[in-house]
C-alpha cells in the first residue's frame, strides 16, 4: 500500500549546520508516527519542510505517492496535507465557530459558491460546527477565541486543521504548555483521530508519545537514528544513550 506520506533523503543546512541529514521515513495510512529527539535535533525544521514553509536543499516528499517537494503550502493543503499551527494562527477577536468557518471556506470556497448566500452560510457553519465537535469543542461555537483556555485553544487549532479534511495532519507539540487535565483531553482527542487520518506527531511529552504512537522515529543532530514500534524504540540501546535514557532519569 502506498504510504500516506514518504520522506526520502530530506536534507537542509543553515550555513554549516546540517539540520536535516538525509531524513527518510514513511507515514503509513492511518498511523500516528511520532518524531522525537533532543532539543535542537531538527524536528520543527522537518515539519516546516513537510508543510512547505521551508524548502529542503535535497530530497523528496511524496503525498500519497505524488511528489509535493516543490509545491507551495496552499497547494499541499489542497491535496490534503494540514498542519496544526501554533496558537498564533487563531484570530482572537473572532468566535470559535468563525475561526473554523474561515478555514472551511478557504478549503471549499468553490463548492459553497454554487449555493445561495443564506444556504451557503448555513452549510459553512454546519461544517465548522462538525469540526469543532470532532475536536471536542461542542458548546464553544459562540465564544470569542481569545477567551478560550490554553487547552481549548490547542483544541481549536486541531479543529481548524480538521476542517480542511486532511489526509495527513502534522501536529507540532500539541500538548505544549497544557496542564494535566487539558493534556488528558487533548490526548483523548488525538487518540480518537487514530485510523481516520495519518498523523506526524512531534511532542516532548514522552508518556503521551508512547501512548499514542504506532511508530516512532528518533532524530538526533538531524539524522534518523532509529524507526520502529514504541516497545522497540524503548529498548534500543543507541536511542537510550542518545536521548531516552536521559529523559526518563530527569
Ligand atoms: N532559520 C534558522 N536559521 C539558522 N538556524 C536555525 C534556523 N532554524 C533552526 N535553526 C537551528 O537548527 C537546529 C534545529 O532546530 P529545530 O527548531 O528544528 O529543532 P527542534 O528539534 O525542533 O528543537 P526543539 O525540541 O527545541 O523545538 C537548531 O540548532 C536551531 O538553532
Automatic annotation (TrEMBL):
<protein>
    <submittedName>
        <fullName>Amino acid/amide ABC transporter ATP-binding protein 1 (HAAT family)</fullName>
    </submittedName>
</protein>
<dbReference type="InterPro" id="IPR032823">
    <property type="entry name" value="BCA_ABC_TP_C"/>
</dbReference>
<feature type="domain" description="ABC transporter">
    <location>
        <begin position="5"/>
        <end position="246"/>
    </location>
</feature>
<keyword id="KW-0813">Transport</keyword>
<dbReference type="InterPro" id="IPR003593">
    <property type="entry name" value="AAA+_ATPase"/>
</dbReference>
<dbReference type="InterPro" id="IPR051120">
    <property type="entry name" value="ABC_AA/LPS_Transport"/>
</dbReference>
<dbReference type="InterPro" id="IPR027417">
    <property type="entry name" value="P-loop_NTPase"/>
</dbReference>
<keyword id="KW-0067">ATP-binding</keyword>
<dbReference type="GO" id="GO:0005886">
    <property type="term" value="C:plasma membrane"/>
</dbReference>
<keyword id="KW-0547">Nucleotide-binding</keyword>
<dbReference type="Pfam" id="PF00005">
    <property type="entry name" value="ABC_tran"/>
</dbReference>
<dbReference type="GO" id="GO:0016887">
    <property type="term" value="F:ATP hydrolysis activity"/>
</dbReference>
<dbReference type="Pfam" id="PF12399">
    <property type="entry name" value="BCA_ABC_TP_C"/>
</dbReference>
<dbReference type="GO" id="GO:0005524">
    <property type="term" value="F:ATP binding"/>
</dbReference>
<dbReference type="InterPro" id="IPR003439">
    <property type="entry name" value="ABC_transporter-like_ATP-bd"/>
</dbReference>
